[in-house]
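User: For this week's homework, look closely at the record that follows, marking any run of repeated tokens, and judge whether sequence predicts the tokens.
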Amino acid sequence: FLGEDILLENGLIDKKKMAAIIFRDKDKLAGVNAIIHPEVKKYFIELMQKEKEAGEIDFLFIEAALLIEEHYDEIVDEMWYIHTDVEIRSKRLAESRQYSAEKIADIMRGQLSEEEFRKHCSVVIINNGDLEETYKQINEKMGERK
């Protein structure tokens, strides 16, 4: 339903072309999400079960798109939200991925609100500073869970 135009010469998906199509067409985005996200969730469920049975780790972190929309709260012990102010997120996307202001705005429009994230997550980490500051907050929260 996306056509062969999104394929590279080697048959793999050109992620940039695919993103340009699906992030401008809500029906195509919904179609891609309906294919990808159930499989991603299935993978994580299998991984969590495997790790539980092995008993070798204390924590398993999952980072994936649509955690709230796909109801990961039903399969994880708790959900965390890594918050970054919009201006800082925009700057980081422009610098690290060379995204245009228009593309960044499209991405932001497609995300849940700050309020929605906070409603579903038991821990909020503020990621407005450097990585050391963010890691410090994560380590503090992890220490509270041991």
Summary: The chain has a mean pLDDT of 92. The CA atoms of residues 42 and 92 lie 31 Å apart.
